[in-house]
Design a protein that fits this description.
The protein is mainly beta. Helix content is 12%, strand content 47%. The strands form three sheets. The protein has a six-stranded antiparallel β-sheet with strand order 1-2-5-12-7-10. Strands 9-8-11-6-13 form a five-stranded antiparallel β-sheet, with no helix packed on it.
């Protein structure tokens, strides 16, 4: 029997994520480090690294957001996942994580810190199971969900995709 999205959600004990989809934290380093905040004026402690499983189903998406750390994505199961980034040069980039490396899909990809990004299951797919490794480690205090109006004002030529992938 081929596992379904619900099989992974139940077996991995995943919960709903605020940006969309489901997640389960699998690793949080006990080693801590000081991380600069607010332009370097103050520091906070973060785990050196964290890891999660992350699952998206078709007709759902991970809304545009950014975090203050690099985030490495790893493909595990299902169909291709599109990671869409609005970069500092005003460009929209799409990277496909998936099983078909002969069709340009890749198994790992890093979204740089402080980059607006969203993700969705590629057309024709039913779900994608990926992993995300964040260093310095993820903390919801470093998570910023995009405000649609602000993102539209900053990147007006991408209004359709921003409207589709914000809540």
């Amino acid at each position: 029997m081929t596992p379904t999205a619900q099989t992974y959600i139940d077996t991995l004990h995943m919960q709903a994520h605020p940006e969309g989809g489901f997640f389960k934290e699998t690793y949080r380093s006990h080693h801590l480090m000081d991380v600069a905040q607010g332009g370097g004026c103050t520091t906070v402690q973060r785990s050196v690294s964290t890891g999660i499983y992350f699952l998206l189903e078709k007709n759902n998406f991970s809304a545009f957001h950014k975090i203050q750390s690099d985030e490495m994505w790893h493909f595990y199961a299902g169909q291709a996942l599109e990671v869409l980034e609005l970069n500092e040069h005003g460009e929209l980039c799409c990277t496909r994580l998936g099983p078909n490396i002969l069709n340009g899909e890749i198994h790992q990809y890093v979204v740089p810190a402080n980059t607006w990004f969203a993700s969705r299951v590629a057309s024709g797919g039913s779900f994608s199971l990926v992993g995300c490794t964040v260093a310095p480690g993820f903390d919801f205090a470093d998570f910023c969900l995009a405000d649609r109006a602000i993102l539209l004002a900053e990147f007006p030529k991408f209004s359709q995709i921003i409207t589709e992938l914000t809540r």
